[in-house]
Amino acid sequence: MLDSILKKFLGSKNARDLRRFNKTVAKINAFENAIQALSDTQLAAKTGEFRLRLKAGESLDELLPEVFATVREAAHRVLAMRHFDVQLIGGMTLHEGRIAEMRTGEGKTLVATLAAYLNALPEAGVHIVTVNDYLAKRDAQWMAPLYTSLGLSVGVVQSYRGPETANSFYFPAGLGQSIESCSRQQAYAADLTYGTNNEFGFDYLRDNMALRLEEKSQRGLHYAIVDEVDSILIDEARTPLIISGAAEDSSKLYRAIN
Q1: pLDDT, tens digit (0-9, with 9 covering 90-100), for 67-119
Q2: pLDDT at residue 13 in the model
Q3: How many CA atoms lie within 13 A of 158 on its CB side?
Q4: CA distances from 61 to 15, 38, 68, 235 (A)
Q5: CATH of 1-121, one of 3.40.50.300, 2.40.160.60, 3.40.50.2300, 3.40.350.10
């Protein structure tokens, strides 16, 4: 009885969240004219400004409205795509570590750029997890011009296909869709790294088997966006990742015992 009365006057949890998000959307839209007036060089310089403000004590939540307005303007200039207000709400949902359910064609890849850029500002790395190598590389190539125009670098890790085939790629900051093969370490050192759940998982296991620091590829784990989260965290999670290494014991001992 009390719950129904409170819900009638205060609204459901979802309704309260939407009201809070809509207030933030209004703040983002208030920055639009000022951000549009910036030149491409000034827009790219916003990344350095945001990072200085972070170091000065501002939080990501405090920076969010201006950051999202900056990403939206960069997307409009570089990709000819502009985030809708509902997509801004999706970006806020991802930033808060929640699940955002979107239908095919509603712009999941574009929505992810908002939270990915925001959480790349602390320079601790962002992982964007997809279900297969094709989507990882496609999404990276598609969104790289947006990130690199704002001064961020993008890495891609792919599954091993033999010694003659590159399996790690890098988009340097400021160079649009310019892609180059690189080491695993460089791909993970990028501001944002695209890859599959299996590759991220196996690289984590390999790092834990490494005997020297220079053999490790990943850095600390900071923030991740997971595409098709139900498939990756429920369906595929049923299959454990197993990796093996060479045995350290000599076979002479077993022959001696026999």
Answers
A1: 999 999 999 999 999 999 999 999 999 999 999 888 877 889 999 999 999 99
A2: 79
A3: 19
A4: 20, 23, 11, 33
A5: 3.40.50.300
For the chain, how far is it from start to end, CA to CA, in angstroms?
76
Does the pTM of the predicted model rise above 0.85? yes
Angle between helices 85-95 and 108-120 (to 10 degrees): 50
The strand pair at 126-130 and 168-171 is best described as: unpaired
The answer to whether the CB of 146 falls within 8 A of the CB of 113 is yes
Same topology for domains 1-121 and 124-242, yes or no? yes
Domain at 124-242, CATH homologous superfamily: P-loop containing nucleotide triphosphate hydrolases (3.40.50.300)
CA 23 to chain centroid: 25
Q: Give the domain ranges of the chain.
A: 1-121, 124-242
The amino acid occupying position 58 is E
- Single out the residue of 215, 190, 192 nearest to residue 203, CA to CA: 215
Phi/psi-derived region of residue 125, left when phi > 0, alpha when psi is between -120 and 50, beta in every other case: left
Q: What length does the chain have?
A: 258
Rounded Cα distance, 129 and 119, in Å: 15
Residue type, 210: A
Q: pLDDT tier at 253 (50, 70, 90 boundaries)? A: low
Render 138-189 in DSSP notation, one character per residue.
HHHHHHHHHHHHTT--EEEE-----TTS--EEEE-TT-TT--EE--HHHHHH
Kindly state the tokens that stand for 208. Answer: 């834990």
Cβ atoms within 10 Å of 49's Cβ, excluding its own: 13
Q: How confident is the model at residue 249 (pLDDT cuts 50, 70, 90)?
A: low
